Amino acid sequence: MKSLMPLFCCLANFILSSAALAADRDAGRDTNWPLRPGDVPFDHSELAELPGQSFVFYDDGEAHFALGGAYAYTYSVANGGGTAWGSYHIAADGSVCVDYANGLARCDLYVHSGARIVLITSDGERYPVR
After folding, report:
1. Tell me, what DSSP letter sits at residue 129?
2. Buried b (16+ CB within 10 A) or exposed e, 53-82
3. Is 26 helix (H, G, I), strand (E, B) or coil?
4. CATH code at position 57
5. Which residue has the higher pLDDT, 15 or 129?
6. For residue 99, what are the β-bridge partners?
7. d(Cα 58, Cα 64) in Å, to the nearest integer?
8. Structure pTM?
9. What is the pLDDT of residues 52-108, one digit of tens each?
10. What is the three-state SS of 29-70?
């Protein structure tokens, strides 16, 4: 973990500069998420608990939410390995938005669906968490 800390610290300027841009971008976002019956979006307290949490998906990819808004997604070996770095923030609609260091950005909604947690993309794709 110590070897990851310098990388998270290097993202500090990126995080600060992207926060203002993210607020502007989120202001006009469509908040119509393709929910299914029984989907319950994370509430404010669950979203506040994201820092320090990791979610492992069924393809063995892992999303890590660090303190201070740093984000890392590590791909499984089967999907080429490697890590995508960025920063995250919570949008007004409760979605989790990530601005990647490579310039890409996305927002996803985390929901409880029955007994499991599912990530829903803006395109309606669903990725259950193990």
Report:
1. B
2. eebebeeebbbbbbeebbbbbbeeeeeeee
3. helix
4. 2.40.128
5. 129
6. 87, 105
7. 15
8. 0.78
9. 999 999 999 999 999 999 999 999 999 999 999 999 999 999 999 999 999 999 999
10. CCCCCCCCCCEEECCHHHHHCCCCCEEEECCCCEEEECHHHE
Q: Return the SS3 of 114.
A: coil
Q: Classify residue 97 as left (phi > 0), alpha (psi -120 to 50) or beta.
A: beta
The helix/strand/coil state of 102 is: coil
**Radius of gyration of the CA atoms of the chain, in A:** 14
What domain count does the chain have? 1
Domain range enclosing 23 = 5-128
Residue 42: C-alpha distances to residues 20, 68, 120 (Å): 24, 20, 12
d(CA 38, CA 19): 32
